[in-house]
Amino acid sequence: LQITLPESGVPALLRALIDGQLDAVLATYTPDIAASEARKLAFEKLHEASYLVVVAQQHPLARQRRIGWDVLAREPWVL
């Protein structure tokens, strides 16, 4: 058994899967990703995920009830 963990964006990983370079991909699910490759791949949803944004109390986002992805895209990140 050999396990490799390549790092890449989901579209590139799916392309590698279609091209036979990978046997399986674990990735976040989005309807647009599934629709783009629906005829070439089988998708199985494994889990519903909830995401949290954690900021200091004095951060401007701390006062927001909802934060859109567009707002988050402009913020620096540490993962």
Q: Can you describe what's shown?
A:
This protein is mostly helical. The chain is built from three helices and no strands.
> Which class do the helix and strand fractions yield?
mainly alpha
The count of β-strands is 0
Range of strand content: under 5%
N/C terminus separation: 29 Å
- Share in helix: 25-40%
Count of discrete alpha- or pi-helical segments spanning 4 or more residues: 3
Mean pLDDT: 84
User: What would you call the shape?
Assistant: elongated
Q: Which segments are poorly predicted (pLDDT under 50) over 5 or more consecutive residues?
A: none
Write the element-wise H/E pattern from the N-terminal end onward: HHH
Rg estimate, integer Å:
17 Å
Major sheet details: none
Summed up:
The chain is an all-alpha fold and 79 residues long.
Tag the structure with descriptive keywords.
79 residues; mainly alpha; single chain; 3 helices; 0% strand; 25% helix
Task: List the topology elements.
Elements: H1 10-18, H2 31-36, H3 69-73
